[in-house]
Hints:
The structure holds 2 protein chains of 2 kinds.
Chain A: E1 6-8, E2 12-13, E3 17-24, E4 47-54, E5 57-64, E6 73-80, E7 84-92, E8 97-106
Parallel strand pairs in A: 2-8
Antiparallel strand pairs in A: 1-3, 3-6, 4-5, 4-7, 7-8
Chain B: H1 5-25, H2 32-42, E1 49-50, E2 53-56, E3 60-63, E4 67-73, E5 83-90, E6 97-103, E7 110-116, E8 122-130, E9 135-146
Parallel strand pairs in B: 1-9, 3-9
Antiparallel strand pairs in B: 2-4, 4-7, 5-6, 5-8, 8-9
Amino acid sequence: xxxxxxxxxxxxxxxxxxxxxxxxxxxxxxxxxxxxxxxxxxxxxxxxxxxxxxxxxxxxxxxxxxxxxxxxxxxxxxxxxxxxxxxxxxxxxxxxxxxxxxxxxxx
Amino acid sequence: xxxxxxxxxxxxxxxxxxxxxxxxxxxxxxxxxxxxxxxxxxxxxxxxxxxxxxxxxxxxxxxxxxxxxxxxxxxxxxxxxxxxxxxxxxxxxxxxxxxxxxxxxxxxxxxxxxxxxxxxxxxxxxxxxxxxxxxxxxxxxxxxxxxxxxx
Lengths: 107, 151
């Protein structure tokens, strides 16, 4: 249902710097409010949780409700203590997990 | 006025029609009071103070399907001066909760941007929960030209 997530993380930063991360994932985010052409409600299917961690440490997390637009987009900040990898996880209502990661180098 | 059988029947029939129409007309949208209750619930019964938190939203959103919103909270994000979470409500949506952001010391700054759906012109509310137990709130009205929850 969801396609490969797109992530924007700077390639490098100085130690302790606060950087901006942008993420976008393609997903219908079916709200459960809509009806098909026969008038039957379309069941809800959304991404309900997004998590960003850095080397296992939680950086940013979001609980999503059906009011989040299709193709959920997030922009947030993160402190970079050292070189490492950011991990991103999206949880779908149907139990699927979409994952991505991005490395960053401290100069 | 004398209450005759005919009048009583007419009145009850009228009332019934009204009741049905009322149910049909009022869409399943949340009200400002519902949202206020949820804000109070989130803030543990207290009324959140103003200030510290800034909610940025467009004054007019042409397309209610994707309205960019942004929140930022003044905080050094260290020790006790830390923003734990920010919750976003939309008063006039079928379900008022929109999203809850959780921050940590690793966030560096309590700032988040996303895109949301708005069913109609309404207030969008952001409430921040600080680690020291205080709550802050900001409210913006967004005028919506085309609602984003229909179908």
